[in-house]
Specification:
alpha/beta; eight-stranded parallel beta sheet; binds D-xylitol-5-phosphate; binds zinc ion; single chain
Length: 225
């Protein structure tokens, strides 16, 4: 499973965030990005506690699973993430990312996610230093760098994220680790190329994809960056 999800490892992956899609037509929205050349489907899970917004839970992921061919990349912006890994895996998640800020037992939680044979990601907020995840970089499958404060789509990219991504890519080289670097928030064709050059493997984009009626063109614009 893990191998299948990251099979395009040498290529930049585009993961449209369905947070910005039309919820009244989720199935059609999924089809449009799959046809348009997306690689993953990014699912923003918010609990109204860890972040000031409430979105979707396992039943929605189970519904997506019925129509989606691409891997479901579930970004859990929730408190008590330990309780939610199993329900999201059962619903069909291929990648489960948890926030380092939301747990005091990150090492245990990563192993717990991996025990389900899905990819384990660790996300950090803009104000959280890389040092907070340093000790798990050798075991984690994916690091998600938040380039906006989580909670909403359509926010402005925080420029300081570039330095964080470059430093993370440098540490990855230095320790010979193989985790994937994903960036999330304010990604657009304006910064996509520079983000890839800084070391990003997976670009999450909500409004940059779903605000355009031509999804294939929007996704291609991100790839060209
Ligand atoms: C923010 C979410 C992001 C967001 C991205 O809390 O994690 O995935 O939806 O949306 P854009 O690309 O519009 O910033
Ligand atoms: Zn996200």
């Amino acid at each position: 499973m893990a191998e299948k999800v990251v099979s395009k490892k040498n290529k930049t992956l585009i993961a449209p965030s369905i947070l910005s899609s039309d919820f009244s037509a989720l199935g059609a929205e999924i089809k449009s990005i799959e046809k348009g050349g997306a690689d993953w489907i990014h699912v923003d899970v918010m609990d109204g506690h860890f972040v000031p917004n409430l979105t979707m839970g396992p039943p929605v992921v189970a519904g997506l699973k019925k129509v989606a061919k691409l891997p479901l990349d579930c970004h859990l912006m929730v408190s008590n993430p330990e309780a939610w890994v199993a329900p999201f895996v059962k619903a069909g998640a291929h990648v489960v990312s948890v926030h380092a800020e939301a747990t005091v037992h990150l090492d245990r939680l990563i192993h717990h996610i991996q025990s389900f044979k899905v990819l384990a990601g660790v996300a950090i907020n803009p104000a959280t230093p890389l040092a907070a995840i340093e000790e798990v970089l050798g075991i984690v499958d994916l690091v998600l760098i938040m380039s906006v404060n989580p909670g909403f789509g359509g926010q402005e990219f925080i420029e300081g994220s570039f330095s964080k991504i470059r430093r993370l890519a440098e540490v990855r080289r230095a320790i010979g680790a193989s985790f994937v670097i994903e960036v999330d928030g304010g990604v657009s064709p304006k910064n996509a190329g520079a983000l890839v050059a800084a070391g990003v493997d997976v670009l999450v984009a909500g409004s940059a994809v779903f605000s355009q009626s031509d999804r294939a063109r929007a996704i291609a614009a991100l790839r060209k960056g």
